[in-house]
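Run log, item B.
One chain of 182 residues. Sequence copied directly from the ordering sheet:
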Amino acid sequence: MKDAELRSPVSFVANVARLPQKGLPVVVEADERQREALAAEYDLLSVESYRAELLVASWKRNGVKVTGRVEADITQACIVTLDPVAAHIDEPVEALFLPEQSKLGREGFEGGGEIILDADGPDSPETFSGDTIDVGALAEQFFGLAIDPYPRKPGASLDVAGDDQPEESEFQKKLRSLLGKS
C-alpha cells in the first residue's frame, strides 16, 4: 500500500464530514518511536519533544480551516563544527482546505477569473477528497519548514585564510585598463 509508505510519523487523520460548531481540537504528542522517525526524516541528531495543538473547524460552506501551533525541541549538527546544537521550534500552523469538487476552488481557474495572491497573506486553499484530512502530516510540514537549514553553534565561524587581497592577475590588470579604472 503506497499511502502507508508516504504516511507521516505523526499522522493524525481527522474526520471533517461533521465538525462540531466550535471545531475539533486535536493534540499530537509524538512518542519516542515517532520522534526517532522525525529525526531520521529531517536529518536531525534527535527530536527531544514534539507537540502539535490544532483546531480543525468548518470554513465557508464545505471547506475546512486548520489553525494552531507545532512546538518541538530538536538537536542538529553544527554546519561548521558538527557539534550538537539545540533548537526550539514554535511555529504557527494555518491552512485552508476545500473539497476537490468545490466550485470555490475551481472558479478562479476555469471561470476565467483572476486569482490574487498576497505574498504575506494565507496560502491558497488545498484540496482534499473524501471525509478526512491528515492534520498530523500538515503540522509536520510546518515543523519541517521551521528547522534551521544552517544550524551554527554560538561562536563557530568559517575562518577565511588570509584576509589580504590576492595579487591581481595579468588578465584582471588588462581588463581594468580597458574599463578605464585604476
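Observations after the first pass:
- Residues 29 and 169 are 60 Å apart (CA to CA).
- The longest strand covers residues 84-99.
Flagged for discussion on Thursday.
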